[in-house]
Structure to design on (395 residues):
């Protein structure tokens, strides 16, 4: 087994169990190793630190798997790690009102680069690192054994795979191929999910609890559901008797499914709107028209993918939050999110504050939101905390 020797003074994060080693921390690699192989990591003095998988094509050159010198990376290791992740979801698995949730959350479950989402008896998996990708066969058969699905389907995140030198790959890996649309239950509500062509693995499971939180503010209120995707927040709002819901998204397919999801829950015969367009432009248009809402939900995609994009992303977040605040009636509620890991909770609050100053309105935070319990945050890996939300009331 080859050995990765770190530069002097670079062992601290590894000792604290941060799972990544960047190329800049490495002094040299001793011995022969293929990318994807397991390597031993040692400090500058030669002391054992950890084991992980190597990928010289990635800036994250080693993804750590264990910090225990006696722990081999073999079939038993992978079985134990997957079993631990599955056991951690037992509470969700036992809830008959929810059939879709994240089973494996990559680094946060000590399984770098592996995402597994359960949609009823179908598992949708993403192999985001080379180290995971070369073990696809082994992981898939262990998932089949431990999670007992009817089928396992692969989706890819092209952007993340490219950083690892991997090409795009999608398709059925095991068992039955899923239907074009499958049905899930979430907190007792029904949704059609397109696991083959939908965004990510098909549904934004990380927002499950937040959709329920936002529901509280909606009975009898008009709702602007910006970045609506397949209508997650809209179905929850309609279920508690919201007034008119205006859904805005740039994707026609997503809005189409949003409409079908409303019908699936018996909410078709309402006066809701499904507006295809750019949220930035549509909200500006509503401002010009003097249209107001009681509740505005902003759940945009990731604006910042790298540290260099943070400034620009911050402007984008400020822009939509300013528009949203201007569209709210007095006493109205803004439910606003950022899923950019690079934007901290603090920075996000400052951005919303900046928007309130420009809007000339006094705003209270009444709730702070985060990702659901099936998207755990690993303390040694703060990067796993990416979703933050604020529920604000405009005075
Ligand atoms: N709230 C949704 C998830 C939103 S994901 C839920 O609960 O399921 C983000 C959505 O924003 C995607 O559907 C994407 O199509 C849409 N989107 C991205 N950029 C946009 C833009 N500029 N204007 C409108 N929609 C956009």
């Amino acid at each position: 087994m080859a050995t990765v020797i770190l530069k002097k003074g670079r062992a601290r994060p590894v000792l604290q169990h941060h799972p990544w080693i960047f190329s800049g921390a490495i002094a040299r690699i001793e011995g022969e190793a293929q990318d994807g192989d397991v390597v031993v990591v040692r400090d500058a003095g030669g002391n054992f630190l950890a084991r992980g998988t190597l990928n010289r094509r990635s800036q994250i050159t080693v993804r750590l798997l264990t910090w225990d010198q006696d722990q081999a990376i073999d079939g038993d290791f992978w079985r134990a790690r997957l079993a631990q992740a599955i056991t951690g979801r037992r509470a969700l698995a036992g809830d008959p009102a929810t059939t879709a949730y994240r089973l494996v959350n990559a680094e946060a479950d000590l399984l770098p680069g592996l995402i597994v989402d359960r949609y009823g008896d179908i598992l949708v998996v993403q192999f985001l690192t080379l180290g995971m990708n070369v073990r696809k066969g082994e992981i898939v058969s262990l998932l089949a054994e431990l999670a007992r699905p009817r089928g396992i389907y692969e989706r890819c995140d092209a952007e993340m795979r490219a950083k690892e030198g991997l090409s795009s790959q999608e398709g059925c890996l095991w068992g039955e191929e899923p239907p074009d649309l499958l049905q899930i239950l979430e907190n007792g509500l029904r949704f059609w999910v397109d696991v083959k062509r939908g965004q990510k693995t098909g549904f934004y499971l990380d927002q499950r609890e937040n959709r329920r939180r936002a529901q509280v503010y909606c009975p009898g209120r008009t709702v602007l559901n910006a970045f609506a995707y397949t209508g997650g927040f809209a179905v929850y709002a309609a279920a508690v008797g919201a007034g008119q819901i205006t859904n805005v998204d740039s994707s026609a397919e997503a809005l189409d499914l949003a409409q079908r999801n409303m019908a699936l829950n018996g909410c078709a015969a309402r006066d809701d709107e499904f507006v295809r367009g750019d949220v930035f432009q549509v909200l500006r248009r509503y401002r010009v028209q003097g249209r107001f809402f009681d509740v505005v939900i902003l759940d945009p995609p990731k604006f910042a993918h790298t540290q260099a994009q943070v400034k620009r992303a911050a402007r984008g977040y400020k822009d939509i939050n300013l528009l949203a605040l201007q569209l709210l009636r007095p006493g109205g509620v803004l439910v606003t999110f950022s899923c950019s890991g690079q934007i901290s909770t603090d920075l996000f609050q400052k951005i919303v504050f900046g928007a309130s100053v420009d809007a000339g309105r006094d705003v209270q935070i009444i709730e702070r939101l985060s990702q659901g319990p099936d998207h755990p945050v690993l303390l040694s890996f703060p990067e796993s905390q990416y979703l933050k939300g604020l529920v604000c009331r405009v005075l």
In short: Residues 199, 204, 207, 227-230, 232-233, 248-251, 254, 278-280, 299, 301 surround S-adenosyl-L-homocysteine (CB under 6 Å). The chain has twelve helices and 20 strands.
